[in-house]
Amino acid sequence: MNEFTTRVISGSLYVALLTATMFFSPLAFYALIGIFSVLALWEFQRLIDFNSSFWPFVLLSLFSLSYLGFLAENIIKIMIGLAIGVNLFLTYLCLRQKKPNYSRVLKTSFTLFYLITSSVFIPLLMDLSLSEQPFYLLLFYLSIWVNNSFAYLVGSRFGKTKLFAAISPKKSWEGYWGGTVATLLLLYLVEDTLQLFGALWWAIGLLIPLFATLGDFIQSYFKRRANVKDSGSLLPGHGGFYDRMDSVIYTAPFYYLLLKFI
Questions:
Q1: Cβ neighbours of residue 186 under 8 Å, at least 6 residues apart?
Q2: pLDDT at 181 over 60
């Protein structure tokens, strides 16, 4: 079995599990994303040499509190501010190619507010439902999958102008705009049918590819600093769970905040 076939099979199973649980069992979805996030966290901790069983406990505790409805609105506002603030700081470090020393404070901030807190906003999207169906959550995943897939397809076929070679040499501007156009087309068709985003559908269609790409850059930034190709090997054809979830983790708090303005 070649790598492409392996990638398609494992990716399809991943998508099928997420879609089935988000529509038929919120508890199963929380549990599934919790497990995936713990595995991504474990891989991330290895990249920054910050191994500790305490942080998976924190992540699962926040997921549990979220599922039980014990996260007050004011707490969620603080969490989203901290997550977005640290994510933007990481974006600055990545794009400017800064390499600060990994102090304990930095490692703690990246672990808690970039990976853990951002991950919590994935299942929290289920609370922003429409007609009791998690369409916003489904469109979140679909938009990122469509963007990443078409960015890869267009970039591998027509990519000539490097997007940011120092961090991710395979990404191109042609691929970026290919993914963006595909995402805009997807959201236009969905909006025409379900009226999920109103007049701001195009803003969502432009921002999701931007955030998804930045999330991928940040993961590449950490991998380059650790001098590894993949964050792990648990997902055949994809590398690790952090490789698979990087765009989703980074984008989740921004998408959650955008939905609050709709």
A1: 142, 143, 146, 205
A2: yes
